[in-house]
């Protein structure tokens, strides 16, 4: 990702990103990861963007050794931390682990290396320190206890599989109706290392780097924002929304393959 692309992504909202992924690439969930809350960094103008640097956490009994990931983080990345599937639940609170795996000292260390923010599919602590640092952190929940002896980081630069939908809700993460009779299961969405991440007040979106042409997506989103602005003007003049949308959406036809 070039500096220009990064700057442009940080000017888009997560809603803009989801519109682009849905309309240009047919990704029905719009790349949106539900249930994360923004804990800090709200004062930043624009969105938080960067390439995903992924860290996988496993139970302390996992045979893999604990690794140090916090001291070698690429600048302009977004640190993404998640658990192995058996430690995740697809209904609230989304993780079985009540300990926090990210805190103020780690935020400090990440920030000094130029990391743009942290996403934890689990719990975090020391939010007062995140706020003081103006360092953006998103998480499922909060905790007070550190992770020692309970979970440990076991892999970096790996695909993270996130359980996002409940087996009690008959709709999967891509918006398809699924049979209620298919029994217990978790429906996962992946984040690959190096995916483009954009976060804001709505939460977190992910642009899959393997399948999305970032320049094409950016060009589409710029046009889509223009269309929305034109429709907003029409609505202000008293025009009906649907007719205005039809009129201006033609601007987006050129993107259809
Ligand atoms: O001890 C931990 O797991 C994290 C923590 O509090 C910090 O980074 O300040
Ligand atoms: Ni701490």
TrEMBL record:
Substrate binds at residues 103-106, 125. Mg(2+) binds at residue 126. CDD domains: RraA_family. One of its GO terms (molecular function) is 4-hydroxy-4-methyl-2-oxoglutarate aldolase activity. Keywords: Magnesium, Metal-binding. SUPFAM superfamilies: RraA-like. Its cofactor is Mg(2+). InterPro entries: RraA/RraA-like, RraA/RraA-like_sf. This is RraA-like protein. It comes from Maudiozyma saulgeensis.
């Amino acid at each position: 990702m070039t500096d220009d692309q990064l700057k442009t992504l940080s000017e888009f909202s997560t809603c803009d990103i989801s519109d682009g992924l849905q309309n240009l690439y047919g990704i029905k969930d719009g790349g949106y990861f539900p249930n994360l809350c923004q804990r800090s960094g709200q004062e930043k103008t624009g969105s938080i963007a960067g390439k995903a640097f992924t860290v996988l956490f496993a139970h302390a009994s996992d045979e893999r050794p604990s690794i140090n990931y916090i001291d070698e983080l690429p600048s302009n990345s977004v640190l993404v931390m998640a658990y192995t599937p058996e430690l995740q639940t697809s209904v609230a609170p989304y993780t079985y682990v009540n300990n926090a795996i990210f805190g103020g000292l780690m935020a400090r260390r990440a920030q000094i290396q130029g990391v743009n923010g942290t996403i934890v599919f689990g719990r975090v602590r020391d939010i007062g320190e995140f706020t003081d640092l103006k360092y953006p952190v998103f998480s499922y929940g909060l905790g007070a206890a550190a992770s020692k002896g309970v979970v440990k980081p076991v892999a970096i630069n790996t695909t993270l599989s996130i359980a996002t939908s409940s087996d009690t809700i008959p709709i999967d993460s891509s918006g398809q109706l699924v049979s209620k009779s298919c029994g217990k299961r978790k429906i996962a969405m992946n984040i690959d290392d190096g995916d483009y991440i954009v976060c804001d007040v709505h939460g977190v979106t992910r642009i899959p780097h393997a399948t999305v042409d970032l320049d094409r997506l950016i060009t589409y989103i710029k046009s889509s924002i223009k269309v929305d602005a034109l429709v907003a003007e029409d609505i202000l003049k008293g025009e009906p929304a649907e007719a205005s949308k039809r009129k201006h959406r033609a601007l987006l036809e050129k993107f259809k393959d």
